[in-house]
Amino acid sequence: EIVLTQSPGTLSLSPGERATLSCRASQSVSINYLAWYQQNPGQAPRLLIYGASSRATGIPDRFSGSVSGTDFTLTISRLEPEDFAVYYCQQYAYSPYTFGQGTKLEIK
Amino acid sequence: QVQLQESGPGLVKPSQTLSLTCTVSGVSIISGDDYWTWIRQHPGKGLEWIGYIYYSGRTNYNPSLKSRITISVDTSKNQFSLKLSSVTAADTAVYYCARGHYPRDWGQGTLVTVSS
Lengths: 108, 116
Fold this sequence. Notes:
The complex is a heterodimer. Chain A has strands at residues 4-7, 10-13, 19-25, 34-39, 46-50, 54-55, 63-68, 71-76, 86-91, 98-99, 103-107. In chain A, strands 2, 4, 5, 6, 9, 10 and 11 form a seven-stranded mixed beta sheet that branches. In chain A, strands 1-3-8-7 form a four-stranded antiparallel beta sheet, with no helix packed on it. In chain A, strand 9 and strand 10 form a beta hairpin. In chain A, 0% of the residues lie in helices and 49% in strands. By secondary structure, chain A is mainly beta. Chain B is mainly beta. Chain B has strands at residues 3-7, 11-12, 18-25, 36-41, 47-53, 59-61, 69-74, 79-84, 93-99, 105-106, 110-114. In chain B, strands 2, 4, 5, 6, 9, 10 and 11 form a seven-stranded mixed beta sheet that branches. A four-stranded antiparallel beta sheet of chain B has the order 1-3-8-7, with no helix packed on it. In chain B, a hairpin with a 5-residue loop joins strand 4 (36-41) and strand 5 (47-53). Chain B is globular. Chains A and B meet through strand 10 of A and strand 5 of B.
């Protein structure tokens, strides 16, 4: 199975700053079948990005995804207060689909 | 607007079978090219993909749970279901039903506790 390793585990930033979250796959993810989710406490995850770089409907353009080889990146260009949450990556190229362990984005 | 809602017992005894149903509204479960998915989240932990079903009945399960899982679909009720047998405390989690391989539509989640 593909293991996704997210880093850092926790990221402490201030509103207005830029956030860069990483997700490294243990092997190539075919056709960049990778998604990013945001999860707030007590809520279901919210899809942000699919296909490594396509924004889901209604997601602000400050969220962007990119890929280089097996390294995937979620960038939030300018943090808003509502962006502080936990973020997960997921590969859906190969079964079993797998998630990263998450990155907690907290207010500094 | 697509909505999914999980239902089922919140408490299951060890060795018994956990049974959950997801009721889908706003879209027919047989329309489009959707795969209907179960995902769980252990308390304070990350997400774990359980498996999915297509309306035709085709399934794909996580091998780590495969021997204990059954996912089924009832197109007449626009529902799909999860059964997980021989549960232990390690199966205590919030269970989500969702739509798609990379879900944009999720249920609110339901906490299932395995305890005697």
